[in-house]
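Issue 218. Parser rejects a valid record. Input:
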Amino acid sequence: MATLFYGSDHAPISLPDRLMGYIKVIASTKLRRGESFTLTWTGTDDEAGRSTIWLQPAIPLRFVFESVEPEQLVGEYLRTLADQANAASGLVIDARTWEAAEDAARTPARPGRPVRAA
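Output the parser choked on:
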């Protein structure tokens, strides 16, 4: 499990490494551009309901991954999440169903190269 430490909050957000890899790429891209957005997640073992944070460049952010090597990300799913982060609702992740959504984004007719989370 990867953890995200946000601002002065002492309780980290815990999500699977690969899922956090997607969030890291999207957050890094948007924050580097000076763009703020919301991140909402549901379906974690630690929290009932949903949680949302406002990500903006002035708030400290630290990602800690269990795995030493970066995860292989599916480019089409990453684009889907990036489009969602640009919408008014922000990036919304369901920890119970994201893998199925990632699998659905893999298109056999258009095999793309995996993206490294770095």
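Fixed in the parser; the record now loads. The two ends are 17 Å apart (CA to CA).
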